[in-house]
Amino acid sequence: MGQCGITSSKTVLVFLNLIFWAAAGILCYVGAYVFITYDDYDHFFEDVYTLIPAVIIIAVGTLLFIIGLIGCCATIRESRCGLATFVIILLLVFITEVVVVVLGYIYRAKVEDEVDHSIQKVYNGYNGTNPDAASRAIDYVQRQLRCCGIHNYSDWENTVWFKQTKNNSVPLSCCKAALSNCTGSLTRPMDLYSEGCEALVVKKLQEIMMYVIWAALAFAAIQLLGMLCACIVLCRRSRDPAYELLITGGTYA
């Protein structure tokens, strides 16, 4: 029974180390995705500290490559020192991922207030004739999320750009994608996206933060299993004097 238990633990541990390498790539991808998406929406969300969970998760992903290597070597050689180091590093990474989850929830809760605070200023700074970064951001969001204005297309009537153009129309990015002859005129509201952008931007940013949270939770669970298997191997080696290394061709007691 002991032999079966330890053999199973080591088999699972080797398999988990291979998963750690895959997890490292996935975590780095999730972190990079957050950075890229934030760049598209940064005018609506000015708190750069929101990126802290993404930075941590990329660092954790990089560390998982090293952990996987240490874990494989320690498991194959059944090194007590290597396995102990493996467990300690996994524990530290697990704590870090718990921190990521907590920070993710904190910043996810702040998204709505941040967007509500900044979106009016962004729309008031829109310049349709000589688009600057903020203007491009608005056009990108309106096309990407299929929305118009803050709460609806009528919000454009209160902007500086609308009052200066005096043509009773909204930006072409408000036009429904399927329509090729749309001019953005408010006399044809059926041609425009009816939903406002604020709620959709908030939803998008909260979804991105949830990706980070779920990724951290999923791999934290895998790491718990890894620590458990490593501890089983360590305890077996400590308690059974007849236990011998597989690498030397020895047998279990």
TrEMBL record:
Keywords: Glycoprotein, Membrane, Transmembrane, Transmembrane helix. Pfam families: Tetraspanin. It is found in: Membrane. One of its GO terms (cellular component) is plasma membrane. The chain crosses the membrane at residues 12-36, 48-71, 83-107, 208-235. Its main location: membrane. It comes from the Eukaryota. It is a multi-pass membrane protein. Gene3D superfamilies: Tetraspanin (1.10.1450.10). Interacts with claudin-11/CLDN11 and integrins. Belongs to the tetraspanin (TM4SF) family. Regulates the proliferation and migration of oligodendrocytes, a process essential for normal myelination and repair. This is Tetraspanin. The lineage of its organism: Eukaryota, Metazoa, Chordata, Craniata, Vertebrata. The gene is Tspan3_0.
